[in-house]
Write a structure and sequence with these properties.
The protein has 470 residues and is α+β, with helices and mostly antiparallel strands. The chain has helices at residues 3-9, 15-22, 69-72, 84-90, 107-115, 132-140, 154-160, 192-212, 232-241, 351-354, 377-380, 397-404, and strands spanning 29-32, 46-48, 55-58, 76-78, 97-100, 121-125, 147-150, 165-171, 213-223, 246-248, 265-268, 278-285, 327-329, 332-336, 342-346, 363-369, 372-375, 387-389, 392-395, 409-410, 434-439, 442-450, 453-456. It is globular and about 70 Å long.
């Protein structure tokens, strides 16, 4: 970004401080899960993030929040404070249908998912196949099955789900200038050619996002860059393209961070806000966007070649008996694939959305291979309102740490043993070998008893390299 552009956004006396702060790492931050927001149990000192009520800055810069059992149990999500600006502006409501159009790795998507109930639904789309695994993992940790994960280009998603969403979030691919201090971008992020390339791609994504909105719906746009061409100019692009169709969202709670050059736009700065920096903007669509929105030519970079058909008819939804061995599901619609895998979705998601979702895009609850049905991590992590495990084993801190390292352990039992403490008596010869392993009554994942051994079925993404004493 040139100093000329900075002069429009910052007082001249702050520009040197901005450049110096760019090279500094941002303060570590977590986002509290709303159903577990008791800060008294956190293993760290925290301070409130001013712009987002569930955000907390970590006071000790040397502390790694991923090494805590509270993180393993999904009490919080590790997220840069700047990323929470878009969540604050979105202000997701429990009943809303929301699309996160560029969802991986899942920080904002999981934040939305945590907020939904009462018919609420999240469509999390990610065009790059390699990023969908971590997206699904992040969403499964919310404990809420009100989502599906799609993998298509934004204009293809717009064709499938046109006019169905109360809000659409576009966390757009950008030049990433705010990532320089974290070592995830180099100085080329400030190259005008890179900025121009990103701006063109952002316009195409935004045009697709417009088609997804209901009249009165909210478009939330965010980046992790400072360039005006990728930020305020994108909102001006939409207003010029569809004059009189948009009303900027002027948030009183975010007024302190309002952009000086465009209404409905908000900025965080590394030298002011203890974060790497962020941009978010919001506008309300006043009337339907015409169906024939001209989309700019697609970029050939990172395109998905997959085309998903519409899902099979709704009458395939129902109970899947084989899943009952693992526990009792509530308020869920289930589908069984031809191979025997079990997938699900909350049973009150709007019909107009459900009928457009393919089986492969649902929450995977169990996988069947060679006639053996195995429960998925996402099933274990469902909240108690959704799933009651047939067998549940609460463990001590020491054993929980061993489990989170991906290790198996002996099922030693006795009056002097602290290896396992169970919420119910467990007979080693039980017909049900699968158990949800819990810590402080909160799910960690699946384990399986085999004689006097407990085998670890934690997925690789969930394994923590270190889990020290709390």
């Amino acid at each position: 970004m040139t100093d000329w552009n900075l002069n429009r956004l910052l007082p001249r006396e702050e520009i040197a401080a901005f450049h110096a702060a760019l090279a500094m790492p941002a303060t570590r931050c977590i986002r509290l899960r709303p159903d577990r927001s008791d800060e008294n149990v956190l293993p760290m000192a925290v301070e409130a993030v001013p712009w987002f009520d569930r955000g907390r800055l970590i006071v000790d810069p040397g502390l790694r929040p991923s090494q805590s059992l509270h993180y393993a149990a999904a009490d919080y999500y590790i997220q840069d404070a700047g990323s929470m600006l878009a969540l604050a502006l979105l202000d997701a409501q429990p009943h809303e249908s929301i699309c996160d159009l560029c969802a991986a790795p899942g920080g904002k998507a999981s934040g939305i998912g945590e907020s939904l109930s009462d018919r609420g639904f999240l469509l999390a789309n990610e065009v790059i196949n390699s990023r969908t695994t971590i997206l699904r993992y992040a969403l499964s940790r919310t404990g809420n099955p009100r989502y599906a994960v799609t993998q298509q280009d934004p204009d293809e998603i717009a064709g499938r789900f046109s006019g169905l969403f109360d809000a659409v979030l576009v966390d757009a691919p950008c030049s990433g200038q705010a990532m320089v201090g974290r070592g995830k971008r180099d100085e080329n992020a400030f190259d005008p050619k890179q900025v121009e390339h990103s701006a063109r791609r952002q316009q195409r994504i935004l045009l697709a996002a417009c088609k997804l909105l209901k009249p009165g719906g909210r478009l939330i746009y965010s980046t992790c860059t400072f360039a005006m061409e990728e930020n305020e100019a994108q909102m001006r692009f939409l207003q010029d393209r569809f004059p009189g169709m948009w009303e900027p969202i002027q948030s009183k709670s975010l007024e302190r961070w309002a952009s000086p050059i465009e209404q409905g736009c908000y900025r965080l700065w590394p030298h002011r806000d203890a974060t790497a920096g962020a941009f978010a903007a919001g506008m309300i669509l006043k009337a339907p966007i015409l169906q024939q929105v001209e989309i700019a030519p697609k970029s050939t970079r990172n395109r998905s070649n997959k085309s998903f058909p519409q899902s099979r008819s709704r009458d395939r939804l129902g109970d899947v008996d084989e899943l009952n061995q693992f526990g009792q599901l509530h308020r869920m619609q289930l589908r069984a694939t031809e191979s025997g895998d079990v997938l699900g979705i909350a049973d009150d998601v709007p019909e107009e959305i459900v009928k457009r979702i393919d089986d492969r895009e649902l929450l995977r609850l169990a996988t069947k291979k060679a006639s053996i049905c195995k429960p998925e991590y996402s099933l274990a992590m469902l909240g108690t309102d959704w799933f009651e495990p047939a067998r549940q084993t609460d463990v001590t801190d020491g054993l929980a740490r061993k489990y989170m390292l991906g290790e198996a352990f002996a099922a030693e039992r006795g009056p002097n043993s602290e290896e396992i403490s169970s919420s119910r008596k467990i007979k080693m010869g039980s017909k049900q070998p699968w158990t949800v392993l819990t810590w402080q009554k909160k799910a960690l994942g699946w384990a399986k008893f085999a004689q006097n051994r407990v085998n670890n079925h934690l997925p690789k993404l969930a394994i923590l390299p270190i889990c020290p004493v709390e």
